[in-house]
Structure formats: C-alpha cells, structure tokens
Design a protein that fits this description.
Distance between the termini: 27 Å
CATH topology of the largest domain: Aminopeptidase
Number of strands: 15
Helix content: 25-40%
Number of helices: 14
Structural class: alpha/beta
Order of helices and strands: HHHEEEEEHEHEEEHHHHHEEHEHEEHEH
Oligomer: single chain
Bound molecules: zinc ion
Length: 441
C-alpha cells in the first residue's frame, strides 16, 4: 500500500471529537487505533506502543544514546465534523483518491501527519536505521476539543516517566506559497510561539421594565458602547522576538521596497507596525486581537433587558497575560457600568513562550526542510491558532509547530471546511521531511 492509500484508509474512520464525549463514535476511534498496526507493520514490530487513556497513543523508538534527551513527534487523529450534505466534491469520509489528490476530513488537519510520521519510521526501520536519541510519537484523539483526554493525558504520562524532551514538533503553519505578497519563494513557517486564547464576557445590568418609558441607555445600549470602546482601543501593536526574526529571515528574499524597509526594521518599526495593522492576517501577528462574537439581552421586543451580555474572543500575544486583558477591558468598559470576566476559566490558554531559533531541534528542522523543500525559505513564525502543544509546555525545552505541506491560501481555506484534500505530491514531500528529520536524530 502506498502512502496515499494508507491516508485514505485512515480518513474513512469517523473520528469526530466533541465537547460532549457521549456524542463521539467510540467504535471509530477504537478502529482507527486498531488499523495502525496493519498499515505500518514494521513500525509496530520495532516500536513500543503504549495506549494512554482512551485518546492517547504513544510510540517509543529507543535510541542508542540514553544520555541524549528525546524528541517528540506529535499529531492528532480526531477531526472536526463534516456533513455529507455540504457541497463536497467527494464525500468527506470517503478517502477518495482522484486526479492526484486524497480527499476528505483529516487529509490536511491532520491525519496526514500521523500517516507520514509512521511511514517515515517504516522506511527508516527497513533500512536498519536506529536513532541516537530516543524518539517518541505522541498522538492525541481530542485536539479539536481541547486535548485533555489525549495530549493532556500523554503529558501526565511523560511526567510520570520523568521524560523531559529536548524538543517537540506538532502540527502548525505550513510551507506557505503566496501567503505574503512581498516574497515569491515558498516560506517554511515554523511556529516557535502560539497565541493565547480566552473568551471574555462583558456584561451590563439593567433595571428591566416596560420599553415604553426607557432610560437614555438600556443595558443593551450601554453594552454596545462598551463593545465599541473595546474595538476602538485595540491593544498596542508590537514586534516580538519571533516577528523580528521572521522579518529578518525574509529580508534577503523580499521584493523592493520591502527588503530595504525590513533591513532597517529597527528604525522603521512604526511604519512596519502600521502596514501590518492594515490587514487582518498580518494584524494578528503584531497584536492581541479582540473579536466580539456573541450577544444577548432582553428575551422580548417590548421588555427592557435586566442583563445584556456579550462575548469577546481574544487571542493573546506572547508577553501579555489573560489577567492583563481582563484588567484592560474592565478599565475600558467601566464608564458604561459594564464589567468583564473570563467565560470559561478552565478553557483559558495563556500565550506560549517563544522557542529557541538556535537549538538542536530548530537546526535539525531547518536542515530537514532544506532536504524536503529545497526552494523554501525557513522562517520563525507566531502561530495564531491553538495546538495540543499547550499540554507539553512543562515537559520540553522547545516546541515547534510545523505542517510539512506546501499550501497556498486557497489550500488553507479548505481546512475545517468543505473539500479538504491533499495532493499525493505533497504527501511524498511530507514523508521526505519526517524521514530527513528522524534520520538526523
Ligand atoms: Zn489540527
């Protein structure tokens, strides 16, 4: 079976995770785990497998030198829902292979990574390769709903085994083609940091009563002012160590006048921050973003609200804390009688640290990129979404978030959407990347 057929097989299992575990199809998760030995028999014969709880799979590939800290390769095997009634070109759980693509949910996010990691190990094992350092593969089955049962449980297991890794690599940003207009070459975006996440409630209490004799501002009107004030006072833009190194990496490859501007970036910081603030995708790289997403007030047209409440979804820059965000909101909304607090304190994720760009892990990832994606410019990147690596912060020195697939903005639009698919050419590059990375350990 080739790698496309193996991925196709994995896509067929409906491993859709849910915040309500009773809604999950337990049998699909179990069958997915049971299918791996048949697809990757060499890896299963040589590597030790431990099932950690119902949603965690760990493989250990014992290295020759126990003095070296291990490396951990992560991925997740759950997917977000997909409906057959949505306009997919091929059904989402069919795993159809057609015209050089494998179709379906999980082909990009991120069963592809599990298939390619195990395939690379399979190839290296058949050539008699044994790594110097021990390698772990850590696969979780609930990343899309927080990762507590998968990566969370695995991280506890690592702690219990007293395992501290040199570095961790998980899903993340891709080899982006055409993702910025000032660099023609593909950019291998290596996520060295991850933004934090919080849902913040802003609420205003009202007196209620009949809508025929309203006060100047109802609770809802006051809330509208409070939200507008938050929108009108964005967090200050700043260039972190990661963004500075990102611009530094791109400078030699950037078109004029960007090359000149980036090379003078320490003097031209205000100009760069202004330019980045102009579009949502680059704005997210330089500041904590706030999106008002939900609101509720009176249940009836002619009744004044007793309470008006909105939710602001916040993505937090490294170096800022959730407590600072809430304090800032409270200061901004106090004039309207509003207050702010975390909606689900247990779902808060503080921003990550910024990983090293000179570590063993970084150097071998960059070398593997040079082998698998010789045209690409490697660049450190601030990953603006979340990954399972939030659970691994305590058990490793450095975390890297990288998806070894060449992706255009159109390809990226299919993630969590209809028509998720991956080209066979991309699959082969992905295997080459992990092969090169493991071969260096
Ligand atoms: Zn994912």
């Amino acid at each position: 079976m080739n790698i496309a057929e193996k991925l196709s097989t994995l896509v067929k299992f409906r491993t859709v995770s849910s915040y309500h575990p009773e809604e999950e199809d337990e049998a699909s998760f179990a069958s997915f785990i049971e299918a791996l030995p048949g697809l990757f028999p060499g890896a299963h014969a040589a590597l030790e497998r431990t099932l950690v709880g119902p949603r965690g799979i760990v493989y250990r590939w014992r290295g020759k030198n126990p003095a070296l800290k291990p490396a951990i390769f992560c991925a997740h095997f759950d997917v977000v829902p997909a409906s057959e009634s949505d306009p997919w070109g091929e059904p989402p759980f069919s795993g159809t292979i057609k015209d050089g693509y494998v179709w379906g949910r999980g082909t990009q996010d991120i069963k592809v990574q599990i298939a390619c990691i195990l395939e690379s190990a399979e190839t290296l094992l058949s050539a008699g390769f044994i790594p110097e350092r021990t390698l772990y593969f850590a696969f979780g089955g609930d990343e899309e709903v927080g990762g507590r049962r998968g990566a969370g449980a695995i991280s506890v297991w690592f702690s219990e085994q007293k395992i501290h890794a040199s570095w961790v690599i998980d899903e993340g940003s891709p080899v982006g083609q055409g993702v910025v207009n000032f660099v023609q070459k593909p950019i291998a975006l290596i996520g060295v940091a991850e933004k934090g996440y919080a849902d913040i409630v802003v609420e205003v209490e009202g007196a209620g009563g009949h809508a025929s004799m309203p006060p100047k501002h109802t609770a809802l009107g006051a809330l509208a002012h409070a939200i507008a004030r938050i929108e009108d006072n964005p967090f200050p833009a700043r260039i972190t160590k990661t963004s500075d190194e990102f611009l530094g990496a791109l400078t030699p490859h950037a078109a004029a006048p960007y090359r000149q501007i980036f090379s003078l970036r320490h003097i031209l910081r205000p100009v760069i921050l202004k330019a980045f603030s102009a579009s949502p995708s680059t704005n997210a790289m330089v500041r904590t973003t706030c999106a008002a997403t939900m609101a509720q007030a009176s249940p009836k047209e002619n009744v004044l609200p007793n309470l008006a409440r909105a939710v602001i979804n916040v993505r937090i820059m490294p170096g800022t804390t959730v407590a600072e965000v809430i304090a800032r909101f409270n200061e901004l909304v106090a004039p309207y009688g509003a207050k702010a607090y975390a909606k689900f304190p247990e779902h808060i994720v503080e921003p990550s640290a910024e990983s090293s760009t000179s570590s063993e892990g970084w150097n071998s990832i960059v070398a593997a990129i040079a082998e698998a994606f010789p045209d690409a410019v490697p660049a450190p990147f601030l990953f603006t979404a979340g990954t399972d690596t939030k659970h691994y912060r305590g058990i490793t020195d450095d975390i890297y978030r990288f998806q070894p697939l060449v992706q255009t903005p159109a390809d990226l639009a299919a993630v969590h959407n209809v028509n998720e698919k991956v080209s066979v050419e991309n699959l082969e590059r992905c295997v080459r990347f992990y092969h090169a990375l493991m071969n260096r350990q």
